[in-house]
Amino acid sequence: MIRGMPGYGAPRDLLARVAADATATARLLLPGGADLAVTVSSGSPRALPVPASSSGQTWPIRQGRGDVGRLEVLPEAAGLSADQRRLFAAFAEEAGLAFSNARLQAELAARAEALAADTAALAESRRRLVRVAYAERDLLSATIQRDVMVHLGGLEEEVRRIRRLLPEHPDDAAAGLERARAGVNTALDKLRTPR
Predict the structure, then answer these.
(1) Would the pTM of this model clear 0.70, i.e. be above it?
(2) What pLDDT is recorded for position 20?
(3) What is the distance between the alpha carbons of residues 74 and 55, in angstroms, rounded to a whole number?
(4) Which of 14, 110, 6, 8 is nearest to 68 (CA)?
(5) Cβ distance 39 to 49 under 8 Å?
């Protein structure tokens, strides 16, 4: 007869189809109390809010050992005939698979939405980290250009000059070597100094 109600597009569509047979509320029970419900009155579905429970007739919709939904006839339509009550009871017995599938679909949609939010947050975090890394790199490059290279700029030429002084002018070569070493040490100190 129903066997999972093939052909519905979304949980809210399923609930509207279930509730459309009378002035009723079809409620899909979701974890955390965030139930999804559709109320149909005079053939026109409307979204919630609807009361958490009605004083009219209620049929639980089960799948396995657990309740996955309820079919609630609103108080103003509580005067159902015996045939209508039997029809709703039979419907509630058969609709469990469809409601269970709708519940899984709603849970999956919520998880997908949470995953999309987490993915967006991670992407933004990565963008921030990349911006910080680039800023650090640029700061280090500027520091090297401003504070380090000034002490290393003539080092290559100084080493050539020292080589030319050896072996005939060892004292001048030693003094030049000491100046070059001092410049290298100063450059290293500038690199080690926190910016």
Answers:
(1) no
(2) 55
(3) 7
(4) 14
(5) no
